[in-house]
Amino acid sequence: MNNKQQVESAAIVLDCREHGESDVIVTFFCRHYGRLTGIAKGAKRSKKRFVNKLEIFSSLQLLHTVPQNNRLAFIAEADLCDGFLSLRNNISCYTTASVIREFVLLATKEMEGDDGLYPLLIWSLSSLNSGRPPLIVLILFLIRFYALIGYSPILDSCLECGQQLRTDKTYCFHVASGGLRCSKCTEKGTNRLKLSQGTLKSLAAALQQPLERLNRLQFSKNSQEEALTFLHSYGRQLFQREIVSWAFLIK
Ligand SMILES: [Zn+2]
Predict the structure, then answer these.
(1) Is residue 178 part of a domain?
(2) Residues with Cβ within 8 Å of residue 9, at least 6 apart in sequence
(3) Which residues, at least 6 apart from 22, have a Cβ–Cβ distance to it below 8 Å?
(4) Which residue from 13, 145, 181, 250 could staple onto 92, CB 3.0 to 4.6 Å apart?
(5) Is residue 107 domain-resident?
(6) Which of 89, 75, 65 has the alpha carbon at shortest distance from 13?
(7) According to DSSP H, which parts of the chain are helical?
(8) Do residues 144 and 244 both lie within one domain?
(9) What residues have a C-beta under 5 A from ligand 1, the ion?
(10) Cα(210) to centroid(ligand 1), Å
(11) Does residue 30 belong to any structural domain of this protein?
(12) What are the C-alpha distances in Å from 199 to residues 15, 123, 130, 170, 189?
C-alpha cells in the first residue's frame, strides 16, 4: 500500500498531547490496526475538523494514512461516533476507564493489537457509559483482556496436582505462576490470594459468555473484592510494574 493512501478506521482515543503551536499527537486503538499514533495537523486551530473529538475515550471514525517504520500516521479527519458523556461526568466510571486505558497502553505496541481487543474496549466504555457498576465492568474487562493478550490465568485446575476444580476444596491464586493451588497443595505461610468457589464460577462464566451477554453476570460483594485483588496482583506481576491509575479507583 502507498503510505500516502488514506484509509478509514473505527478508533478509540487513548492519549492526546499538544505538539508545537497548532498540532496534536494522538494515540488511538483502531479496530483493524491496533494501537496507532498519529498527528492531527492544525488540530488546535481547526475547530471544524477536530474540536471536541480528540479527547481521551472518544469513539471516532478516522480518515488516516497507514504509517510505516514506526512513523506517525497523518490524521486527515475525525468524526465523533460517541463521546461517552455519562462516563466523563461520573468520577467512578472515569477512574475505571483510566485503569482500562492504562492496561491497553501497557500491553500493546504501535500497529499491534489483538482483533478482539477493540470490541472489548468498546464494550467496556459503553457499559460504563450506560451505568453498569464500574468495578464489575473492570473485572469483566481484565479477565477477558488477559486471555486476549495470551496470558489467561489458569482457573480450572490446581497447578500442583493437576486436579480439576472440585467443590469440596478451597483454592488460592498463586500470582508468580499464574494459576490456582488447591488447599492440599498450598504451602503454609506463602503469599496467598483466596478465590472462593463463587468467584471462580463467575470468572469462568466471564471467559465463556459472548460479549453481549457479559452484563448479565453478577458478582457478590465478596467475589468483587477477591476478583479485583487477584486481577490487580496478576497484572502487576505480568507487566512487572505498578498500575498507576489503580490507586484512583473508587471502591
Ligand atoms: Zn492441588
Answers:
(1) yes
(2) 28, 30, 31, 32, 33, 36, 61, 62, 64
(3) 41, 42, 43, 44, 45
(4) 250
(5) no
(6) 75
(7) 47-50, 85-88, 91-107, 117-129, 134-148, 197-208, 221-239
(8) yes
(9) 158, 160-161, 182, 185
(10) 30
(11) yes
(12) 33, 22, 24, 11, 23
The answer to which of 24-38, 58-72, 73-87, 187-201 has the lowest mean pLDDT is 187-201
- Domain, as residue range, for 18: 6-83
pTM of the model: 0.95
Distance 192 CA to ligand 1 centre (A): 14
- Note the pLDDT tens digit of each residue in 131-189: 999 999 999 999 999 999 999 999 999 999 999 999 989 999 999 999 999 989 987 65
Nearest to 195 by CA among 180, 208, 206: 180
Beta-bridge partners for 107: none
pLDDT score of 2 more than 60? no
Ligand 1: centre distance to CA 182 (Å): 4
pLDDT digits (tens, 9 = 90+) for 56-77: 999 999 999 999 888 999 999 9
233 lies in some domain: yes
Q: How far is the CA of 207 from the centre of ligand 1 (A)?
A: 22
Residues 217 and 157 in one domain: yes
Most confident of 42-46, 100-104, 111-115, 175-179: 100-104
* pLDDT score at 4: 76
Residues 160 and 77 in one domain: no
Instruction: Name every residue whose Cβ is closer than 8 Å to that of residue 29 and which is 6 or more positions away in sequence.
Output: 11, 12, 14, 35, 36, 104, 108, 113, 117, 118, 121
Q: How far is the CA of 241 from the centre of ligand 1 (A)?
A: 29
